[in-house]
Amino acid sequence: MLLKVENFNVYYKNLPYLEDINFYLNKGEIFSIVGESGSGKTLTGLSLINLLPEHFSAQGRIIFDGQNILQLTPAQIRQIRGKRISIIFQDPATSLNPVIKVGNQVAEMLVHHFNLSKKEALDRTFIILERLKIANTINSYPHQLSGGMRQRVMIAMAIACNPDLIIADEPTTALDVTVQEEILDLLYFLVKKDGKSLILISHDINIVSEYADRIMIMYAGRVLEKGKVQDIYENPAHPYTKALLKCIPAEGVRIKGIPGNIPSMKNLPSGCIFNPRCENKKNICSQNTPDLVKISDDHYVRCLLI
């Protein structure tokens, strides 16, 4: 097991943003975190490399290769971040430095973690970019590249140090459909070929079904369901998971949206947090808070109606 998150909570000052998060990741596995905007997916990903925003604090355990990330010093986490665990941020246009050539930005990772000379780092960068079929961009600035090429540069930065774990936070959000598939296929190939692990964060439950081994469904900072891809798609148990699956486009079928919005963390509903939007809710749903319970092998759900 490469990563294990246990009894993990994140607070903004004293306000709980993530609550009771538990999951694990094996070597060579693709694990996906799915949910609408505001569900806590990105915050979970940032927590894994200790990049929480100001005024946020974390409690619990994030065990990576036998070490608790939350107990490491800033110097120790810097040795892991980028080298052992890397992240691909949502928007490469804002994540890349606009006044530095992309080749130098990738090479900087190699200089920092492996003490290479600038020439050695650039030579290795060219090989990495060549692998991603964008070697001709090494002397380009980010604004000179298309969205898909910028995302490939972000992937180059993520794989430059041959990390054990890559966190991909909505890596295809700003891309058109054909480029989305290219980027996800590329990530899948890189991860599976090299035996690495990937956490794929997405709002699109349809996309991750083709790539992930296991899925965790999040809503308002809580885990509502998690399990193997086959279980989630063939036997969804939580009404929210079922609602997300109904949002997948299909020929001749009208998409049925989910009414309402994710609640504010400052004003969460009583009982089950999904009950105001749930079509199957009963009186008990607004009175009692459900626990995450096991319903089959490695399949868990947080619902009072199960």
Overview of the structural elements:
With 306 residues, this protein is of the alpha/beta class. It has one domain (3-94, 163-301): P-loop containing nucleotide triphosphate hydrolases (Rossmann fold), CATH 3.40.50.300. Helix content is 31%, strand content 24%. It contains ten helices and twelve strands. Strand 1 (3-12) and strand 2 form a beta hairpin. Helix 6 packs parallel to helix 7. The longest helix is centred in the middle third of the chain and has 18 residues, at 177-194. The model has no long low-confidence stretch (mean pLDDT 92).
Name some characteristics of this structure.
globular, four-stranded antiparallel β-sheet, 306 residues, 12 strands, alpha/beta, single chain, 10 helices
Shape descriptor: globular
- Average pLDDT: 92
Under CATH at level 1, the class stands as Alpha Beta
Poorly predicted regions? none
The share of residues in extended strands comes to: 15-25%
Strand order of the largest sheet: 6-7-8-3-9-10-12-11
CATH superfamily: P-loop containing nucleotide triphosphate hydrolases
What is the CA-atom radius of gyration, in angstroms?
Answer: 20 Å
Instruction: Name the helicity range.
Output: 25-40%
Structure annotation, total helices:
10
Q: Topology as H/E string?
A: EEEHEEHEHHHHEHEHEEHHEE
Quote the CATH topology.
Answer: Rossmann fold
Q: What's the story with the biggest beta sheet?
A: 8 strands, mixed
Overall number of strands: 12
- Would you tell me the structural class of the helices and strands? alpha/beta
Number of domains: 1
What is the CATH architecture assignment? 3-Layer(aba) Sandwich
How far apart are the first and last residues' alpha carbons, in Å? 30 Å
